[in-house]
Amino acid sequence: MAIESMAYIKDKKERESMAWFRNLSKLTTTIKASQRPKNKDPFLLLPSFTFLSHFSSSNPIEDKKPSTTKPIEHSSGLEPTKPNEKPRVVVLGSGWAGCRLMKGLDPHIYDIVCVSPRNHMVFTPLLASTCVGTLEFRSVAEPIGRIQPAISREPGSYFFLANCTGIDAHKHMVHCETVTDGEQTIDPWRFTISYDKLVIALGSQPSTFGIQGVKEHAIFLREVQHAQEIRRKLLLNLMLSDVPGITEEEKKRLLHCVVVGGGPTGVEFSGELSDFIMKDVRQRYTHVKDYIRVTLIEANEILSSFDDRLRLYATKQLTKSGVRLVRGIVKDVKAHKIILDDGTEVPYGLLVWSTGVGPSPIIHSLDLPKAPGGRIGVDEWLRVPSVQDVFSIGDCSGFVESTGRQTLPALAQVAERQGKYLAGLLNKIGKEGAGHANSEKEIEFGDPFVYKHLGSMATIGRYKALVDLRQSKEAKGLALAGIFSFFIWRSAYITRVISWRNRFYVFINWVTTLVFGRDISRL
Ligand SMILES: Cc1cc2nc3c(=O)[nH]c(=O)nc-3n(C[C@H](O)[C@H](O)[C@H](O)COP(=O)(O)OP(=O)(O)OC[C@H]3O[C@@H](n4cnc5c(N)ncnc54)[C@H](O)[C@@H]3O)c2cc1C
User: In the β-sheet with 464-468, what is the strand arrangement from edge to edge?
Assistant: First the structure.
């Protein structure tokens, strides 16, 4: 049975009946044009031709008759592989888990198909640094074709810029809808992909705890476009507050940056912001330098997973840097102010929300076994029980209760190691001739996945960082704070950046910022 988000279908139903017909005319024109010997615009025409030529022999667009009254929701896409073809691994998501998996998969054994609404992986630990210009956006985005070159080169491997909208585990099929730039470009359309092995690595979404106004007024920090939005808003507010005619009260509001959530991401962002204010705003926006403030709101302790001494150190350093720490629970978010549970009103010009993550609607909608907390349930080998050939890794997955294992934290180091483990497992399965759908029953899976926590790190601004190398909160181990930790933090992350190109970019960005200050142009 196709598993679909009903709300999703309802929202799009009307639009699709027309959109499908418009796509038909646009795409048939493209296909015909691509068959002309002299093609003047290869960028427009070739991709459509290549795309269709590797798909099912039936043209997914032309087969559908516009005269049907009911809108056609799915056109055919990649059909099941034949026994003499390479088996196909379909990877949903291009985050830490999905990308590490794709990097490790052997393209001689499998065709690899990735479905994701973004064509790159985001190196999230350095994302906060891009919001204030310490790093450039490109430095933290790694194109998928660089992570697994087979996706760009192999005839049966693809990257599809699309959202997965449902999974039919019994038919070994994934339902997708393309991501486009809206009606100015091309309307989205639906297609299906058959898989031999499916890996669900769809990540998570920010938790809002049902608080009204968060989605409308706050900015989350998860994607490069969020960092871009934060940077543009911060610089806009700085510039507007310098323009004649603005009231004192409005100036104070515009230059009040509020961060909700005192976990590593909220603290790192607050640290970056205070650095930006102390080093760059004070020099280059001298008229407004005394107005700009940062407030970090947290319901409990900041950095609750870190060693107590490190937390104390972080609290002192942040306060020294001018970050106001407020203990409180946000009750309501309005366009220009937030309201705390004790009734305090906090006006803001920029609001960044970073209060943890939970399963996204697509994960909720999938009719698959679930782990406590609503993530997709997996066994010790990261297989989804009760369905064949489906695996799940990263933030979207958790161990089913019967394994007796605890759900692992939503961390890049978990996602990355699960991706690496599963790539090895799938390669082994493929080498033993069980890569095709429904053929792995006789295979010995080997050692189950075991996670060993390597510790946590966080920067707090002013060239200071925390390094907590204990395996758990109760365990003993090294816990450091200060400038030395900052160099450990930077060395650790620059070596983790995926490509040499981005390592070089990050290094050059750090040196440029140190010598010339941050870039404050609002592009
Ligand atoms: C700012 C920030 C800093 C962080 N710092 C650290 C750190 O220092 N150390 C650490 O260990 N962890 C850190 N994390 C956490 C870490 O980034 C996550 O745990 C990690 O990204 C999880 O990887 P994932 O592959 O499961 O999910 P993600 O990396 O979130 O990837 C999910 C992928 O699924 C795609 N997707 C979503 N919906 C669909 C759909 N319907 N169809 C197809 N594709 C879809 C997304 O576009 C994305 O490509 C940080 C997170 C953030 C946001």
Answer: 456-461, 464-468, 479-482
